[in-house]
Amino acid sequence: MSLLYVDGFDSYDTSAIGYRWDTALGCTIDNLHPRTLGGNYLKITDNIEKMFQPSSNVLVNGFAFRIDDYQISPNPFKISYYDVDGNLGVEYILSYDSGTNKYGFICKFNGGVLFTTAFTMVASNWYFIENKVLIDKTNGIVIMKINDSTEGTASGIATVDNSVSLESYSKVKYTVGAGCYELDDLYILDNTGSTHVDFLGNILILALAPDSDGTNTNFSPNGSANNFECVDEKNIDGDVTFVSSDILNSVDTYNYPDISNNYQIKAVVSNIVARKTDAGNRAISHVVRSGGTNYSLDDISLLDNYSFSQRVWEKDPNTLNDWDNTGLNSAEFGVKVTI
Ligand SMILES: [Ca+2]
Ligand SMILES: [Ca+2]
Ligand SMILES: [Ca+2]
Questions:
Q1: What is the 100 CA–ligand 1 centroid distance (Å)?
Q2: pTM of the predicted protein model
Q3: 137 partner at 20 to 30 Å CA-CA among 11, 176, 212, 270?
Q4: Longest distance between any two alpha carbons in the chain, whole Å
Q5: What topology is assigned to 3-190 in CATH?
Q6: 7-44 residue pLDDT tens
Q7: Rounded-to-integer distance, Cα 339 and Cα 85, Å
Q8: Alpha-carbon distance 278 to 136, whole Å?
Q9: Ligand that lies nearest to the alpha carbon of residue 208, given by its number in the listed order
Q10: Residues 191-203: tens digit of each pLDDT
């Protein structure tokens, strides 16, 4: 694993935030202040948490950030990490400089200030914030970038509680103490694997929904005539429209709209919401069809209730190279019954 989670907030509505995030209070999917393409973003007035399975002691988190309504408070907006035992790790706290009317971040661990960034941000503008932590009891490193420029760094420091069982973080929390803040184009990665092991830089996340049935239609459509019409809605509709199968190795794949610009594609991500109705264990895998071959990933055991899974294809499995427009535009994505 390298990319642990990505979210452009364009493929679901406020009602589905709970599928993707572990807790969310005072959060909505909003589009009043679009950053650029993919204009929906997450608006936070309270807090939101994401848990993940760490595979290393390096964590990088990036997201577009807009200060919509700043209010003076000890912690108006902060990014907090938690280690695998639940102890608070490094925090980045938004701060305001009244002399220049600009904003920056203060990086803290265990009450001590590790660094203060340059104060470069103004309210109502989008910025791309990235922070990296090397998680270590004595030799940790913290770095923060704003719009690809390193604005704060510290090293040779503790970034994890001395008693922690494993030097890794497993949760990030964004908390608003006062005001309103907006996030978009968010990624979280560790440094395992060989593709994305460090800052991605200022990225954009595009959302695509299925627009026709692909090569594989082994599943049965329920609630709409065609398979893709059962899984193309933004507002996840539960048992109203869905595709289903109880046959091992059934595959459904869908076509997606072509992207016209010549983007440099860092990864392609597929998102599935699924459940089982069997009493026993049933599992699915995410599938991509590229170059005429179906490729599937790990088995994901299903629950009785709908649950969300996201898988990342950092390379085109057909070429083993970075995705290009041609490969992506002809690829199909879908689902397979594996248990
Ligand atoms: Ca977006
Ligand atoms: Ca549906
Ligand atoms: Ca296509």
A1: 30
A2: 0.96
A3: 176
A4: 66
A5: Jelly Rolls (2.60.120)
A6: 999 999 999 999 999 999 999 999 999 998 769 999 99
A7: 33
A8: 44
A9: 3
A10: 998 889 999 999 9
